[in-house]
Amino acid sequence: MSKHSRKLAKLVDTSPKEETAILVALIHQNETEKLVQDHLDELAFLTETLGAKAIHRFTQRMDKPDTRSFVGTGKLEEIKAYVEYFDVDMVIFDEDLSPSQVKILENELKIKVYDRSMLILDIFLNRAQTAQAKTQVELARFQYLLPRLTRMWTHLERQRGGTATRGGAGEKEIETDKRDIRRKIDILKDKLKKIEKQGQTQRKGRQGIVRVALVGYTNVGKSTLMNLLTKENILAENKLFATVDSTVRKVVLENIPFLISDTVGFIRKLPTHLIESFKSTLSEIEEADLLVHVVDIAHPGFEDQIAVVNQTLRELGAGDKPMIMVFNKIDIAPKMPSEEELMEMSEFEVEEANFIDFEKLKVSYAKKSAINPVFMAAGDGTNIDELRKTIIEEVKKIHKKMYPHYLEDEVVDFSQYSDEE
Ligand SMILES: Nc1nc2c(ncn2[C@@H]2O[C@H](COP(=O)(O)OP(=O)(O)OP(=O)(O)O)[C@@H](O)[C@H]2O)c(=O)[nH]1
Ligand SMILES: [Mg+2]
Fold it and tell me: Binding positions for GTP (predicted)?
């Protein structure tokens, strides 16, 4: 089909069309093509979560991005030709762009230019449910957008706000919008302070009870596990950042009550503005006594994901908390076959399959921590009892530190009851 007839077909087709995107990444000095493709898989998943379809990828081996146009001139020409020929709607870069790079790229390509942070911020904006999460995301997004406000963004923002201007906005409009955004940032900050105050009072009421937080990379199964542990119905789906708001529930196991919270998942290069304004939501993690670190063991990059989560926890000042490692999704993980089965396979097959040796992993994590890791499937409940047992053991330890006489008190209580009978 020629470009002209494709455009015509688009005009005739009135069904809502999924927006198309192309992805761009650099391959840095000590990175392999494979690693960058894995990162682009994640970027494609993020793109899908935003509601667009990634139709092509461009990579360029380059150690540092070009200060003007991120990629080199030749590559930019290549991208431009592709964008025009296939009438692409947006281009998404796997790193953050400087305000001037956004401007130059937008002028050259004449389509929406997203960088990694902006993409994540927009996903969060779509997903936030509570007033607090919404305010937090809006604030982070405006702060990020302010220096990057271009004609295109001004236009899009006005559409979002219901005051669409025709075509791109002029420099004057950009200035007006910048002023508007600064004002909005101040209002949002105030609003957030008020909401946070309410949250603090709420959290004060929770003092003196053991608090457990589910943490982990996005899409590993935290909400599924939360539902399983509390028999709640929290949205769990195969999308990145299904959960942006934190949920806290009370659980009682073996007579000991504790709180468990499900919070936003982490991701590589989480925008700093987002971490900043999500500090209060993330305080569920900061204030937790025990962390349950959920890992999607079926994900080929699960080890990198563990490292990202641990790093983010350190940044939040929660790097030293007791932690239960939960290797989730064992039902779909490529488990190491028996020796006989291995003998039957070719070297190539073994290499391709990337088998995971659960036993080896168990031993290595048992060495790293005083708490044994749990291998389970939150999806069908496999080994949930083992996790419950591990959680309650750890909760009991913490509870005992909080209330050294708790059990003795209980005995007194029981004797009182028996007296009444
Ligand atoms: N096969 C399999 N799928 C699972 C398992 N646990 C969760 N899932 C699926 O993994 C996807 C993500 O699950 P969620 O519970 O939403 O993950 P999350 O960690 O809360 O994700 P975010 O809130 O987006 O960070 C969903 O499609 C779940 O059905 C499991 O044990 N096995
Ligand atoms: Mg979730």
Answer: 216-223, 241-245, 262-265, 328-331
